[in-house]
Amino acid sequence: MVDNLPTIRLFVPHVLHGFDPAHIALNNLNIGIDSLSYDSIATSANVRTANFTERSGLVVNDLRTQFRLDKANLYLQSLYLRLPKTELKANITMALNAFSAYNPGQLAVSLNGFTTLNDLQPLLYGRVPSRFLHSIPAERINITGFLRGNTLPFTLQKLCFRMPKHMVLNVDGRISGLQTPENLSANLALRGSLQDVRFVKQLLPKSVNSTIKIPAVLISMQK
Fold first, then answer.
1. What's the whole-model pTM score?
2. CA 170 from centre of chain
3. Mean pLDDT confidence for 122-128
4. Torsion angles phi and psi, residue 123, rounded to 5
5. Measured on CA atoms in the order 167, 146, 69, 89, is the torsion positive or negative?
6. What is the pLDDT of residue 189?
7. Which residue has the higher pLDDT, 12 or 177?
8. How does DSSP assign 30-97, residue by residue?
9. Which of 13, 34, 201, 214 makes the best surface tag, with the fewest CB within 10 Å?
């Protein structure tokens, strides 16, 4: 089954700038679905292709996944996502209450692929300071690893970020208190190497920026 739908809007008031999950507007949606099933237990479908643009400027060139939604969980298995300069493969299992403030369920994600800051800007706009977005190199970032948990404890396993010519960062550990910044805590093991990370200076406060010099040399780190 293939549908060509010009616009789909999922609307609630008070639209946020950038990507707003509470007000999603999909334009020029093309989708191909087979093996669609629906009953009182779950809805499932094999999305063999989909592409669209979103109100925020997010452009999805191709999306494929085995979709399943039941009363408690959302499953996106064998997910393939391609944006203009992004290609990611993932498996996602998310409890529908994973972001609840009270007794949240679990989110589990495995990732393998690459992305760029330009593709992510619609998702980050309004959530990350603009000077950060302008300072981080717009080069390819390779990502692999596993994430599991919720806003209380969130576990990172074998999470690896590789930015050629700049850095390799491996992260394992746990982050807690994501919904309450005053209670935010982390216990992380960091390993990797830094090469040209002079862009980090632009992320620092101006009062600190002028007092620090970062050479373009290779540094290994382990903690």
1. 0.80
2. 17
3. 77
4. -80, -30
5. positive
6. 94
7. 177
8. EEEEEEEEE-SSEEEEEEEEEEEEETTS-EESEEEEEEEEESSEEEEEEEEEEETTEEEEEEEEEETT
9. 13
